[in-house]
């Protein structure tokens, strides 16, 4: 892939996570960590944000994908959070065989767009993008009661319901952002009817929610948070989860796994999470990787460019 074929990044260039204003940035080590030993079987990072830069080292999306391959991460789902990043995600997926895209308006964006009178126009654009062959998920969408207060909830729930319908209409997966809203997310999915392949991105529930997901056949994607010292409930959920419903992700540049917590994150650091997963499950790394690959391809289809024509049948 030559440089000239790369999609253009959104106006303003790559988005920056670190602007010096975040509390704690002064204490963080903002250099990129070393590449970990590669996984024995290359897996996929099913949720990442390559357009958001963190730290003091520049790692553009293509360099990030190259480095991921060195660590045994063969492909990613690049996730949009608004119209600009969703379009960019779809463009990147169309140009690089290591990338599939997810498109959506983030649950914290929806209420702002509603207040500006733009929500339905932007949702129509998301619906149009969702029909593109390498867009294989609608996400991240869902409910966030941590950052959005009571006044934004109606718009958030309305946007979530519309995203669910878009996923179903296109026969593609749904990636759910659920922050402090487990019961409402489950209630919405049950009320509206969940798509055949529904993923709780950055699973943040306990064994109870894992059992609910098991019952419905909903996928649970574990991120770096499942390595955190203060997260035994997540590891218990992982042990409860039906093995064929477990996925893995970075949510980079956020949620860097231990022992690198606080450093900038990128898909090449996912082996730390996968190795911890194999310890928690007391299973060989090979078996865990092989199953993650099979689960991920079942949800999103093949990454190969040749597979694009088969999107309809993947549902
Ligand atoms: Zn995310």
From TrEMBL:
<feature type="binding site">
    <location>
        <position position="49"/>
    </location>
    <ligand>
        <name>a divalent metal cation 1</name>
    </ligand>
</feature>
<keyword id="KW-0479">Metal-binding</keyword>
<dbReference type="Pfam" id="PF01026">
    <property type="entry name" value="TatD_DNase"/>
</dbReference>
<feature type="binding site">
    <location>
        <position position="177"/>
    </location>
    <ligand>
        <name>a divalent metal cation 2</name>
    </ligand>
</feature>
<protein>
    <submittedName>
        <fullName>TatD DNase family protein</fullName>
        <ecNumber>3.1.21.-</ecNumber>
    </submittedName>
</protein>
<feature type="compositionally biased region" description="Basic and acidic residues">
    <location>
        <begin position="16"/>
        <end position="28"/>
    </location>
</feature>
<dbReference type="InterPro" id="IPR015991">
    <property type="entry name" value="TatD/YcfH-like"/>
</dbReference>
<keyword id="KW-0378">Hydrolase</keyword>
<dbReference type="GO" id="GO:0005829">
    <property type="term" value="C:cytosol"/>
</dbReference>
<dbReference type="GO" id="GO:0004536">
    <property type="term" value="F:DNA nuclease activity"/>
</dbReference>
<dbReference type="InterPro" id="IPR001130">
    <property type="entry name" value="TatD-like"/>
</dbReference>
<feature type="region of interest" description="Disordered">
    <location>
        <begin position="1"/>
        <end position="37"/>
    </location>
</feature>
<dbReference type="GO" id="GO:0016788">
    <property type="term" value="F:hydrolase activity, acting on ester bonds"/>
</dbReference>
<feature type="binding site">
    <location>
        <position position="140"/>
    </location>
    <ligand>
        <name>a divalent metal cation 1</name>
    </ligand>
</feature>
<feature type="binding site">
    <location>
        <position position="47"/>
    </location>
    <ligand>
        <name>a divalent metal cation 1</name>
    </ligand>
</feature>
<dbReference type="InterPro" id="IPR032466">
    <property type="entry name" value="Metal_Hydrolase"/>
</dbReference>
<feature type="binding site">
    <location>
        <position position="251"/>
    </location>
    <ligand>
        <name>a divalent metal cation 1</name>
    </ligand>
</feature>
<feature type="binding site">
    <location>
        <position position="201"/>
    </location>
    <ligand>
        <name>a divalent metal cation 2</name>
    </ligand>
</feature>
<dbReference type="GO" id="GO:0046872">
    <property type="term" value="F:metal ion binding"/>
</dbReference>
């Amino acid at each position: 892939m030559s440089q000239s074929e790369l999609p253009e990044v959104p106006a303003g260039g790559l988005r920056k996570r670190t602007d010096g204003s975040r509390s704690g940035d002064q204490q963080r080590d903002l250099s990129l960590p070393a590449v970990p030993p590669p996984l024995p079987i290359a897996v996929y990072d099913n949720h990442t944000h390559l357009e958001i830069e963190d730290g003091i080292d520049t790692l553009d999306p293509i360099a990030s994908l190259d480095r991921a391959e060195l660590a045994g991460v063969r492909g990613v789902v690049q996730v949009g959070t608004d119209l600009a990043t969703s379009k960019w995600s779809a463009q990147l997926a169309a140009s690089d065989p290591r990338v599939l895209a997810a498109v959506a308006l983030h649950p914290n964006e929806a209420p702002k767009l509603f207040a500006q009178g733009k929500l339905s126009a932007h949702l129509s654009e998301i619906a149009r993008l969702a029909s593109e062959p390498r867009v294989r998920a609608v996400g991240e969408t869902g409910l966030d009661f941590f950052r959005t207060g009571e006044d934004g909830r109606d718009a958030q729930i309305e946007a979530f319901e519309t995203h669910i319908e878009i996923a179903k209409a296109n026969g593609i997966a749904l990636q759910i952002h659920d922050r402090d809203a487990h019961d409402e997310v489950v209630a919405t999915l049950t009320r509206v009817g969940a798509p055949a392949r529904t993923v709780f991105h950055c699973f943040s529930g306990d064994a109870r929610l894992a059992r609910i997901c098991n019952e419905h056949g909903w996928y649970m994607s574990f991120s770096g948070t499942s390595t955190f010292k203060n997260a035994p409930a997540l590891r218990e959920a992982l042990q409860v989860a039906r093995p064929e419903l477990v996925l893995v992700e970075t949510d980079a540049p956020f949620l860097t796994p231990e022992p690198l917590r606080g450093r900038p994150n990128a898909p090449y650091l996912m082996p730390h999470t996968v190795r911890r997963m194999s310890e928690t499950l007391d299973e060989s790394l090979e078996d865990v990787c092989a199953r993650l690959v099979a689960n991920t391809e079942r949800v999103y289809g093949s990454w190969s460019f040749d597979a694009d024509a088969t999107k309809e049948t993947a549902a």
